[in-house]
Amino acid sequence: MAKGGDSTGAGGKALRGRAGRMKNGRGSGRASSGAVRLWGRHAVEAALLNPDRVHRKLWATRDGVESLNGDLPPDFPVEWAQPADLARLVARDAPHQGLVLECEPLDDVFLADVLEGEAQRPILVLDQVTDPHNVGALMRTAAAFDAVAVVTQDRHAPPESGTLAKSASGALEIVPWVRVVNLARALEEIAEAGYWRIGLAGEAQMTLAEALPAGPVALVLGAEGEGMRHNIAQHCDSLARLPIHEAMESLNVSNAGAIALYAVATRVV
């Protein structure tokens, strides 16, 4: 991330967008059949409560099911297992908390559907943020601050997975995730819908507080380490920085996104 507070260092019915699919394998959270394996209480509980999820199977310990506080649907098929058995179904050393749920990937979400929603809610746009922990953490923050959607590319973004869902702590089931082929074109559509596009960049002259408008906002954050691509920065209406102390060069993208979404939520309009 560039020096000076760049946020690009290190991040009703749910809607989904075109999603690239990664190969199967332990650590990806994707089962051999193309399904997704989710683990951990918050991720599994949110998926079980999401009417748009198609569930296949739940592996669980007795303590794991008890932690759901009655949110397991009646007659839901459960295969009882020991913690060591569950550990073989998930990413290495993943904190499964006695619950592993296999389910279908969520349906696609399209940008046009999201832009028909409530314009006062922010949109979070991620330019090639590839770490599933960061994307999951940003989804959690987007849910906390009532963002209308998270927008990423098909490529150069993590797939829907157990690792991402665990980091999102249930927000994967709540926040629409729009995956587009061309992020620059998506930013043009976002502008046409009336959003002011603010890219976070450490070299910007204005602070985020100075750049925030009164109307709809789309926050654009760049990739871990490299920041926003030049073409994406050119598709922003303004660039802004977070006023961090000079003793610290940068912030992790998920931390920067949290601060930026808080700034949008608390602005005086």
Number of helices: 10
Given as residue ranges, the uncertain stretches (5+ residues, pLDDT < 50) are 1-32
Largest sheet: 7 strands, parallel
Give the percentage of residues in beta strands.
Answer: 15-25%
Task: Give the overall shape.
Answer: elongated
Helix content range: 25-40%
- CATH topology category name of the largest domain: Alpha/beta knot
H and E string: EHEHEHEHEHEHEHEEHEHEH
CATH superfamily of the largest domain: SPOUT methyltransferase, trefoil knot domain
What does the average pLDDT come to? 85
Just give the CATH class of the largest domain.
Alpha Beta
* Spatial sequence of strands, sheet with the most strands: 7-6-5-10-8-11-9
Structure explained in plain terms:
With 269 residues, the chain is α/β, with parallel strands linked by helices. The protein folds into two domains: 36-103, no CATH class; 111-266, SPOUT methyltransferase, trefoil knot domain (Alpha/beta knot, 3-Layer(aba) Sandwich), CATH 3.40.1280. Helices cover 29% and strands 17% of the residues. It has helices at residues 41-49, 62-66, 83-87, 111-115, 132-144, 162-168, 183-192, 208-211, 230-234, 253-266, and strands at residues 36-39, 55-60, 78-80, 99-103, 123-126, 149-153, 177-180, 196-200, 206-207, 217-221, 238-241. The strands form two sheets. A seven-stranded parallel β-sheet has the order 7-6-5-10-8-11-9, with helices on both faces. Strands 1-4-2-3 form a four-stranded mixed β-sheet. Helix 5 (132-144) runs parallel beside helix 6 (162-168) and helix 5 runs parallel beside helix 10.
